[in-house]
Amino acid sequence: MAYVIQGETGDWELVIGLEVHAQVISKAKLFSGAATEFGAEPNSQVSFVDAGFPGMLPVINALCVEQAVRTGLGLKAQINLTSVFARKNYFYADLPQGYQISQYELPIVGEGTLLIDLPDGTTKAVGIERLHLEQDAGKSMHDQHPTKSFIDLNRSGVALMEIVSKPDMRSPEEAGAYLTKLRTILRYLETCDGNMQEGSMRCDANVSVRPVGEQGLRTRCEIKNVNSIRFVQQAIEYEARRHIDVYESGGDIRQETRLFDSGKGETRSMRSKEHAHDYRYFPDPDLLPLVIGQNFVDGIKATLPELPDDKKARFMADFGLNAYDAGVLVAERASADFFEEVAKGRDSKMAANWIMGDFFATMNSGDYSWEKPPVTAANLGGMIDLIKDGTISTRLAKDVFIFMVESGKSPAAIVEEKGLKQVTDTGAIEKAIDEVFAANPDKVAEVKGGKDKLMGWFVGQVMKATQGKANPAMLNELIAKKFKE
Amino acid sequence: MTNLTKLTIAGALNGLSKGEFTAEELTEAHIKATEAKRALNAFITETPDMARDQAKESDARRQAGKAGALDGIPLGIKDLFCTKGVLTSAASHILDGFTPQYESTVTANLKAAGAVSLGKLNLDEFAMGSSNLTSYYGGAVNPWTKTSDPSAKLVPGGSSGGSAAAVAARMVMGATGTDTGGSIRQPAAFCGITGIKPTYGRCSRWGVVAFASSLDQPGPMARTVEDCALLLGAMAGHDPKDSTSAPVAVPNFAAALTGDIRGLKVGIPQEYRPDGLNAEVSQAWEQGIQWLKDAGATPVEISLPHTKYALPVYYIVAPAEASSNLARYDGVRFGLRVPGTSLDDMYKKTRAAGFGKEVRRRIMIGTYVLSAGYYDAYYAKAQKVRRLIAEDFTKAFQTVDVILTPTAPSAAFGMTETTDDPVTMWLNDVFTIPTSLAGLPGLSLPVGLNSDGLPLGLQLIGRPFDEETLFKVAGVMETAASFTAVPEGV
After folding, report:
1. Is A271 on the interface with B (CB under 8 A)?
2. Which of A264, A313, B142, B247 is the most buried (most CB within 10 A)?
């Protein structure tokens, strides 16, 4: 079902392209040896190069180049063995050199593809236009002093990958799916931590609309620096409706840069095209063209991890998972690894259900992480083994799971300690049934008189009497048999 | 011991090693000369106390048998090189009070070789100029004067004018310069000394205030070819901090001065003989050709057909790079700040007050040629023509080993003779700019005086990283010219 917005004059479709700035995972900056750690004291991680001092020169950080190539390979993109750094010139207080070193005409990575996973389980290919390396600027703080602005240059010179999509997305949901998937791939590759709150992944959205059926693109607006996937979707939806309103009231959209106000849920003009900077790009004469060898690229290719799409396909094929479950489990490399460890040699569907159910619920409710999960994969697997061999019922397992979270002990130890082993002794169950029957002769009569609904009540009472330990299948069977007697 | 200032670097090293005098004595003699010749305005910052300390340390090293290649030699440093703890101005108001916490690679190399620094030398603001008159600190004065008008002050050339004046006036034994379009060679010619712009990439640009990154190249200026060879040997070398620094070995340049140029082919480019070329310059050139012939070399007429485009190409490429390189002087982090009502207002006021007229002119030109809609017509086209100019040289060097040309179209001119027309001033570099655009080494040496008593220089151009051939040929010409004239009062 294509996403359309119904206007007064008809149906409109959205055209969306995204530019993502992803901070490269690297200990040092793109052109200087200064550190990149987040949250350091202001201006404590600044070299003379980053501060734009006279006579300072940039020297490329080879690790950042490797990370860009790795990301390019992860996006199934063309790797350009020769690329060129260019200066993007503009004045701002947090841009010490007066230019940003970026790549313009010859980026290190060319066209590629990203497969997005849609909620209905289908996928869609979104084109990647390019990926280039560039320096980040510093940070301006305007709220520290009544008349002055403060500048923190810690971020100045940090390596960013700008990843530009083709205008292939047609709904806010597709944009969200693109960002989710891109983040997943970057995290798999360990080239960006994808943390949008800390700003290590930032998104600009290019939005335009057109009547359904119209070919060609209308004027777009760029919404800058939106810092969550949800806000990107909100911003796109707001912007699309704004365009439709303008067109339908006979107006025209001007190309401009806009900001998203997450408090008000609206976009507003930042600068129009007439006031747009003329960046005067030209090749940076301080840097030679960046030339890498095919063997360098091949070496990186050889160390690529299994990527989410491949992993998902394998989970579906090897573990019999459906597309949705497989998609959820591969969203993080750690969750996929956890699943594989739990599912190995076990009922994979049961493993998936437990992970996506009680495990994720607990994980999200407390102070847990993949380094410190609520239950280890070995214990969760052990618990599934106990269910499978009949030691505990699924119902008891829920209790065992809670005890595992609380104590960190193995499921076998908990079953032993708490006496949670399920009762499969027919005699013991029959005895309990008899006691319940004896205590409730009227209800027994009612059931025998045809009130079948009360059967469930008896099952519950007997289960209660056995502290939940009665094997549910056996209990059902035995109660039915008793009533027939 | 005033005659200590008359020594060459090679001679002084000899005297020091024999213990004929100490580095302290040598330094003191030059400090005295510096004080005596302050009227030349060659220095922006004198550092006599630091020099004395360095000289003392030098003597101690020599005593300990640990003397470096230039140990105890008093030098001057063009004030475009960042020097740790010493004001570095680029002769611009905008760098007021800027004292770097770092030392440029080239000056650090010289220090490591034991050289003593007497201070920072005057230049055209941000090295933009051919007269030294664009310096915020006022122009340096050429120690040479016209016999016809000894009272008229002459320019020392530029941009390394303070360096050339200080070397010629025997205030320092040698100096660092930088050359973007002729800034070492033209002042060397105007002041009757020798200077070499090495191959682009030979000396590190790290810590040198940038003018035009693809052209800037540090180099030495001294009174003899051998001294330049000694200085370059200490200054040069691959620097991983400069991505454009070439990973090539530094030869023993002085060893190239064998005096034997028999069989060498010397290119004489017809394009450097325009109509109306100064007759005395032309004569000096003819004389130079004859000397080389006499020494067994063969002159070969060559053509460098794209020469006429070099000047316009240079005045697109260099300002373009400069407009970007000088963006960092914004009043935010160092140097001059003129407060404003907003960030943009502060920028405007700071840069208007901080930059002189020539610098502002070049920033405007550079900004224009990089602008959307003009980039292809100017900058992109200039880069294409630049390649053609470089190819001219590549082709020429298939048949010749070295090229001989005049260094400048005239001798030094008066400080008040300059016109308001910037293009006339720019023509000073017409013979040096093509070499810069091609990244080739170029050496200027004095070959004689004109009829008004002013020195004239000739330029030798070599293959990339073949400074050795330049030194060899220059050594032969130096001997033949036996240029012993000195400025009045030296």
Report:
1. no
2. B142
